[in-house]
Amino acid sequence: MAKEKSPRRPRAETPKGFRDYFGAEVTERAEMLRRITEVYHRYGFDPLETSAVETVEALGKFLPDVDRPNEGVFAWQDEDQDWLALRYDLTAPLARVAAQYRNDLPSPYRRYAMGPVWRNEKPGPGRFRQFYQCDADTVGAPTVAADAEICAMLSDALETVGIPRGDYVVKVNNRKVLNGLMQVAGVLDPADPNKFAHERGIVLRAIDKIDRLGPDGVRALLGEGRKDESGDFTKGAGLSDEQSSIVMLLTDNELSVDAAARLLKLKEVVRASPIGTEGIDELAQIASLLEAQGYGPDRIDIDPGVVRGLGYYTGPVFEAELTFEILDDKGRKRSFGSVAGGGRYDDLVKRFTGQSVPATGVSIGVDRLLAALRAKGRIGQEAAPGPVIVTVMDRDRMADYMAIVAELRAAGIRAEMYLGNPKNFGNQLKYADKRQSPVAIIQGTDEAARGVVQVKDLILGAKIAAAASVEEWKSQPAQTEVARADLVAAVRRILGNS
Amino acid sequence: MAKEKSPRRPRAETPKGFRDYFGAEVTERAEMLRRITEVYHRYGFDPLETSAVETVEALGKFLPDVDRPNEGVFAWQDEDQDWLALRYDLTAPLARVAAQYRNDLPSPYRRYAMGPVWRNEKPGPGRFRQFYQCDADTVGAPTVAADAEICAMLSDALETVGIPRGDYVVKVNNRKVLNGLMQVAGVLDPADPNKFAHERGIVLRAIDKIDRLGPDGVRALLGEGRKDESGDFTKGAGLSDEQSSIVMLLTDNELSVDAAARLLKLKEVVRASPIGTEGIDELAQIASLLEAQGYGPDRIDIDPGVVRGLGYYTGPVFEAELTFEILDDKGRKRSFGSVAGGGRYDDLVKRFTGQSVPATGVSIGVDRLLAALRAKGRIGQEAAPGPVIVTVMDRDRMADYMAIVAELRAAGIRAEMYLGNPKNFGNQLKYADKRQSPVAIIQGTDEAARGVVQVKDLILGAKIAAAASVEEWKSQPAQTEVARADLVAAVRRILGNS
């Protein structure tokens, strides 16, 4: 390769799929997470912060037949040739911790974790390769009381951050009900769990596509197969019409049928399946535990129509859905949708220790929930006020301006001295504008000699500049001269917290 | 390679040099950073959170003559063959942001950042490959008022987190004073900055070793050279005795000479050097700006004896030193030492844009400062109380226990229901002990029928178990029966916040 003539300057860019967060983006997220933390704490959950870096082996993403770990994680080889990777969620590190510290941790172990995770996936609009998760899990609790607790806590967390009751519902379903339906439909044989595994895979993937394909499309995939618009044919699970109808009961989420009625119907259908009956009983138990705590179906609802996550989880599954409407890209109304999901998963620790440990938990999509709070006008409606700007009129009197700014800060007022080149006073006011400062303090030699300062109300000034007559503007009602000793009081008056 | 017979279980371990943070370790750090954030906010600094991943090119650690980026960073190649890396500090990402958003950011731009950074270095005791930094920088402010502001803010931050006045001092020096001494000593020629570069390197490295080698060792390195204990000879800078004496003035940090006196002496010595004189003047200006804000030398002191960082920075340098004594590994008293450092650095953005942008800032060593607060007894003295534990006496009455726990939480009391296997009641009390619970709630069938609960004061119980006679123990003063309706009040009474 030919040597370049002059060294190229580096590009000042984030890597593809990564982004920076400025000002309110950082503080609003921190505040939301702080409130969620308070709820988790009250429920007895303890914080856990694992390192961002794990061994690929511990993450469980290593494919032994390729040189590099598979797609999906950012991984590299360290000096000992071990593969390391950035965590892709907060559950895999919890599994490692639960195994590593199993003799020291309380059992059950309730923990919450919040922080960035990384995915080596194709970035897209709104899809980043680093994003926040906020998880709470209970490890070592076999009882569905643990699942009910997670649901109650999720409900409290949503209300605490500012989603009003009535604008959300935590929906609860159970993987065992699906298993029961499969057993009744003849694609699950408890005596030989591996039998029909291929068919069950097709059934699960089909049910998961209900929103996109509609009932007819799903029914086709459950039966012989489906031809899509392009003419491509996907082979189906080979269920009879009757079998398909049984499995389809799960997706029957017509508004005309309420959840309780559907649950009763399902109970009837899965009667012949022990696992299905167990699933229905667990849902009833969760409902009664929640009712005892005062969580009615307006907040947490048993809903066998919840399909998401049924493939991954082994028992109860939860999904928090925001029910208020927003406008989509095309200006159509649609409900905001899911902001959190979770459920019960077995064998969390088994990979490491061989011992089965039951666990249940929830993960809140931090960016989704922030977007919801913005859509509801709970945050980001008006920019937080910037600092008071103490302008520099006289370069030799920096110490005086520093004393002013120190006095304001000591009074708890956010304040700055202008630290750029003070020569052009217009630049100082432009800076104040960019900082969204509510107030500018001005003190020239003359004012200093008279022991006064000019206090300029920049918000009022902007209103006058936009609307007022030349006479009003000239009279400068937005600027007041006050005695130097009255500075803090005058600023407080303008800030509205006198 | 022979195929293994059975798949080996993954090891449940953090990668070498990484660690997990549990419970109070997480909350204490979060609380300390929250307090520091409040101070930074009051000073008009805005939060910035950059991604953990940067291009190696932007980080500036890429050595073109090797396949992999140099040691010190964790780096990998993405699918486009670009090298990506984890940030190793918060300053390099700031440089990238200042260049990338230079048309959008206010100028000067004050920002703070806190978060983990990663170093691919050999781990050791207390040395981890992921650790927290907490930085504040002002970009685009040429005036030393910006440096003075950083020092005042650092002083406020230390006091706010709990380091009392008198237990710390922020020391301020100036790289230009060293340059002046070098010029006077004849190893800096302003007309040809590259001349004597080799000698200056030796001088800087020698001065930096003052604590380890002592004045004689440094003097030897400044002169002909130094033979160490093993007999190895290090070639010196070749300064004459007189030249060495001039440079050594900087390191003359005997307690008998106060900072002001040494500053005067230095001013005299560097009179012939414009850069040296400028350095002294800047220090005087910083002192007067700080005095105007009420920061005397008890908090922020001009100290030409501060050597650390003089090689890296281009103007004023700062170091926050904690002056209280702790015992070292060998039981000897020594002062706690440095917890933060910073200074002025040019050419932050120049790498990217070609334009020089002045900047100054400080970085707080988060783990060091936490260790200091622990040493001072400000945090971690007593474990935060655990949650109230509602025990499970009767598996069929889970809903009742859930109602109890919900009532406690609604009253703002941290509470848990026991979620493990309730069969063995002793295990429940062991769990409460491990969770450091102050109170256990017990309600068997009998109590339920009578509408009462047993409230067990576990802290008092532990005291009695340790010290009391068998009679006292039998009388169970630590356990009280109260009406179910009085539960919250009874728990509050024990928790001491009735």
Model description:
Two copies of one chain form a homodimer. The first copy, chain A, is built from 18 helices and 19 strands. Chain A has 498 residues and is of the alpha+beta class. Among the domains of chain A are: 24-48 and 89-166 and 281-375, Bira Bifunctional Protein, Domain 2 (BirA Bifunctional Protein, domain 2), CATH 3.30.930; 53-86, no CATH class; 388-495, Anticodon-binding domain (Rossmann fold). Chain A has an eight-stranded mixed beta sheet. In chain A, strands 16-15-17-18-19 form a five-stranded mixed beta sheet. In chain A, helix 4 packs across helix 10. The termini of chain A are far apart. Mean pLDDT of chain A is 88; it is low at 62-66. Strand 1 of chain A pairs antiparallel with strand 2 of chain B, so a sheet runs across the interface.
